[in-house]
Amino acid sequence: MSEIKNLQPQAVWKNFYLLTQVPRPSGHLEKAQQFLLDWAKERNIEAFKDEAGNIIMRKAASKGYEDRKMVVMQGHIDMVPQKTKESTHNFETDPIETYVDGEWVKAKGTTLGSDDGMAVATMMGILEDDTIEHGPLECLITADEETTMYGAENLASDTLQGEILLNLDNETEGEMVIGSAGGVDQNAVLEYQEEETDGGDAAVKVVIKGLLGGHSGLEINQGRANANKLMGRLVQDAMANFEARLCSWVGGNMRNAIPSHAEVVLTLPKENVAALKEDCIADWKKVFADEFAFVEKQLELLCEDVERPAKQVPAEIGDNLVNAICACHNGPMRMIPEIPDVVETSSNLGIVEIGNGIAKFTVLVRSSRDSMRECCAETNESAFSMAGMKVTYAHQYPAWQPNPQSEIVALMQKVYKQLFGTDNRVGVVHAGLECGVIGAKYPKMDMVSFGPTLRSPHTPNERCNIPSVERYWQFVLETLKETPKK
């Protein structure tokens, strides 16, 4: 695992290694926050934690660069805690086990945390090296970006002093982002009175697993299967044709990750079990394999006999809940008309939990257009309301609108061309970046987002491309050196 410390550029990789040793799942950042404060104190770097749990560090300009505009380098400290079904990793206590696979750094059975640990490691590398040339610097390391953007949402409007913000949370080297989607969490809840299962019935557990999952913004348009949506089709069939009744459902665990796993427990007449397995399960296995043959290479659909639970969902309520799951919009709703290869509006049915008298669905709706975000959310709310569910909204964050006249973007395009001889692509993304939230508090700040190449963030297949980190690091250093004057 420690072999990543010796990768180049060592200034980034050695600090990323340190971060892998400190637990930092969203919602449990105390150890990581203290680690950063201690790290800064040991190096006589100004650092403090604000009331929102953000870490802010500052460094004076290098000699001769005192007349430059102050730059805010920004990323988030938390990581998405996803692991394989077989992994015993505890994200609140265990270090991330990394390894090198060709040109990629990966983690053993878990998310890697390069989203957004590479940003934090970059800032650490710059802050501790007095030979790097730069103007005055602020480093903003935000809390709980992956769950609620809590740190950015609660950042005080007078904390930052910088005029330029370099967000280091993009995931393709050679690309600069100047706009991103906004979003809102949609929560649907229904409490119900459980009923006794029929003593003559049998029970089965149906599992869908092995899906790619992925980032519900960056990878929502790649045709990946959502385990909750697949399961909804299967359970609807089982209820309609095999007298199945729903006892429990667990699918997905992050609203911003495409669910890769779902399992349900069903009861049904004993005489229907064989037909369910031979017809329903076998048929859906073929259908799913055919539909996702070029995407989901590891898709598994399993069915096993289990002990009959004592309680189950009432038939009408179970039907309504499954219908709502099937009716909920999932995936892209519309592309940006002016940029037809970029998703404008989407919905991710990230979490479904049914059992013990309560049903909870969590959906993340994203859009770069407020009216379409509302349209998509209302579409889902209509389905949930017809099932008798109460729908609430939380953690709404704004879209980041592009600024075609950005001074820093124009400068960075020039810098990239000088360094590498090719153009740095400029565009917008469907992912939710903190720039929109920060920009609402600091409307005059000139912003851009970029980073090294990461793939499959928010999944155990997350990986960071080693050569891209070298190019990204060079680009960061040259950008800081060329920062505009005040």
From TrEMBL:
Q: Name one GO molecular function term.
A: metal ion binding
Does the keyword field hold Zinc?
A: yes
Q: Which reaction does it catalyse?
A: Hydrolysis of dipeptides, preferentially hydrophobic dipeptides including prolyl amino acids
SUPFAM superfamilies from the xrefs?
Zn-dependent exopeptidases
Q: Which Gene3D superfamilies match?
A: Zn peptidases
> Which UniProt keywords are given for this protein, alphabetically ordered?
Cobalt, Hydrolase, Metal-binding, Metalloprotease, Protease, Zinc
State the source organism's domain of life. Answer: Bacteria
Can you say what this protein is called? Cytosol non-specific dipeptidase
